[in-house]
Amino acid sequence: MLKYLYSLLLETPDRLYPFTTTVNGKTLTGIEAYHARILICTEKFGSPFVCRDIFLYREAFHLIGAMIVIAIAYGIEKIFALPLASIVFLGVFVLFITVQEAYIHPHFYHQLWWKGLVDWLMWCAPIGIYLLFKS
Asked: What SS3 class is residue 105?
């Protein structure tokens, strides 16, 4: 069940891909367009994330995800009236992202180290800024 939920979260950007891709004269949309674009970039450059459009699209999702996590932390703090609750939540989340980008993705998804570093920064920099300016 946990693996299914993780996969669902991981594939959310794939499912919401808003651009079209044309393959053999056929216009693809959604997840089919995303997977076709990944395949084209991989065949052309050896990695899908060398293609600027795919890279920026995925990083935008990481940034949006970070904003959602910050909003959840803010909600936790307001609901429980405990500033420490949001800090603990964000600390655990940053730990999870660190494990994900440093171990899980490189070992199970063959993610390049620089992509993991950029992903980690897109998740953790907004959280760090939030914590820095949080009073």
From this structure: helix
Residue written as token pair 């919401």: 16
User: DSSP secondary structure string, 39-75?
Assistant: HHHHHHHSSGGGSHHHHHHHHHHHHHHHHHHHHHHHH
Mind listing the pLDDT tens digit for each residue in 102-118? 999 999 988 889 999 99
- Helix or strand (DSSP H, E) at 23: strand 21-23
Quick one: tokens of 70? 């910050």
User: What is the Cα–Cα distance from 114 to 118, expressed in whole angstroms?
Assistant: 6
d(CA 87, CA 22): 46
Q: What is the CA radius of gyration of the chain?
A: 17
Residues whose CB falls within 8 Å of the CB of residue 118, separated by 6 or more in sequence, listed in order: 59
